[in-house]
Amino acid sequence: MTVRSAVDNTYRFFHWGAVALISSSVLFPTEDKLLGLLILAPIVLFLFWLYLGTWYELREDHFYARSGPFREKITYDRIRRVERVRNSFSSMALSRDRIGIWQHGKGFFSGTTYISPVDPDAFFQQLKARCGNLDEETDKR
Predict the structure, then answer these.
(1) Residue 14's pLDDT band (boundaries 50, 70, 90)?
(2) Distance CA 26, CA 33 (A)
(3) Cα separations (Å) of 125 from 54, 99, 128?
């Protein structure tokens, strides 16, 4: 099951605002317009890669997430908690309405992944059903 990331209006505003700002800076007359293009074009392409290339997949034995060049693969037995959250932490999510995934044996920063599937309720239930090693307190939602 492959699902694209939901995109909320806040992220959409900042994304398109950054693209517009970066792109418009090339329009102003400068002596080093080519240098500006060489520096700014990769940034704009990277932003589009994140915007269009963020998706999640429930595979047979693991959860897989991709956000532009960033990838994460978590086997279901490593997942200790799955919870619906609302935050703006840096993550593989393009919306503040997220699903938090915590892994066994890892700290907060290295073992926490936030995702924002288009249909979070269905994805949450399906992910939770595949994780057989959840802590007792994970029944939040």
Answers:
(1) confident
(2) 6
(3) 20, 11, 5
Give me the count of residues in the chain.
141
DSSP one-letter string for 73-88: EEEGGGEEEEEEEE--
Residue type, 71: R
Which position has the token pair 């059903």?
Answer: 129
Unique residue bearing structure tokens 């589009």: 48
DSSP annotation of 131 reads: -
Q: How far apart are CA 95 and CA 8, in angstroms?
A: 5
> What's phi and psi for 6, nearest 5 deg?
-75, 150
**CA nearest to 59, candidates 72, 45, 43:** 72
**CA pair distance 77, 86, nearest whole angstrom:** 25
| pLDDT single digits (tens) 52-93 | 999 999 999 999 999 999 999 999 999 999 999 998 877 899
